[in-house]
Write the structure tokens for this entry.
Amino acid sequence: MASAICSQKDYKVVPGPEAYLSPAAASMGIVLPEKGQGLIEGQIVSEKVAMEAIAKKLLGAKNPTFFPGPNVLWAVSEKAVAKAVALQEMVKAVPGMKIIPMPDYRPKYPMINPEVEINPNHPNLTIWHNEIDVCVFAGVHCHYANLALKIIRGGTDCYTIALCANPGHEDAMISLRDVHVEDIRRLTKVIERLREGSK
Amino acid sequence: MIPKISPGFEDVLPVEYRELVQDGSYGRNLRIKDLGTFKESIEEHPLCAGCALSLSIRLIVASLPCPEDTIVVGTTGCNSILMPQLAIHNIHSLFGNQNAVASGLKRALKIRYPDKHKDVVVVAGDGGTADIGLSMTMHSWFRRENITTIMLDNEGYSNTGGQESSMTREGVVLYMAPLGKKYPKTRMFEIARESGCAYVAAVSPASPRRLEKMVRRAILVARAIGPTYVQIYCPCATNYKFSPSETLKRTKDDEQIREYMSSDAKELIERLGE
């Protein structure tokens, strides 16, 4: 258990592989950010700082990948469609960023095809198969996002980023909260600015 | 509601999801006669060759009066590993809880969508329905919940290697029942009728048209009147040790087609022309 690795006081949410059963970050004392804040590796920071960190991580990644969940993949409302469009703009801003969808949460029998999808019950298979070093989750219901994020931290060395429409994710290495269309567009602008600045 | 893919994500979704959206049964009023012209499940599923249960599930999906507004509640069993492959909303419940989950779901949907029919259909095996979940199954009937319960009766616990269930016939020897079943098959048809089901039917996939008619009737009666029950006999080639090619013959030979309906249900069925 991670509690044997380090005490709760200095627990950091960093890339793994951490443990066969990695602990929930919340159980290690990591708390969710307040409005206007984000999380970087378990530390609360301002949203602005978190956005900059996300942009740097994505631009510095060898194989950045976006995992859209059912809340944006399926056109269940105008809001979902608008968010889907904004997220695709964000993907376009990151050179070489791939999209691998999470169409639903149902277990995949007899096997998952990690080339074309990710599933919260065994996300590590998709990460390993595609050698993904940085990933972004958006549009995944919170309880399934937490499940996937914990498994990824437990079994892979992938850096996880969660763009959450609700209160954020302690189990992600970087998490924003209350992310809506305009916030995604702001993040895209930050990515574009840093990308231009690095030329 | 009929699922649509968000613009721009059409090309990233796995092909089977795209096909389920494009060629699924949603909103098209399809029937069993149309099987083969639409996609009701993903091609690959892990059930055994000659599985009468997988055929039954295909036929059930093709029989739903309104698949886009149907939620199937399942539970542990062979059927539960095919459920994720279907072009239909489904919930997997803890073993035996399916009728309790379905009851709550149906009540919530009535509140959320007062002007719309949302059909809640339990599809579970004999172990989930008549053994482990019998209490919840019967109590949902006692409470007159507006749900349909479909039991896929393969007369044993198949995906755990062949234990006897209460639906196994007396004297039958299975892999994990080497001395043979010591008591008769539970009379679920009669239990359902006496527990307050307005419509009760027994059928098998060897009679697809009858199965379609009974499933449709059960769902339409459940919408308007009260609980309904359909028992589908679908023997298991693997655990009953017969050749997969014999499944339909064996099903046909052993099937029992029975139907009971209350006077209210009869009147409704006649009125709807079903």
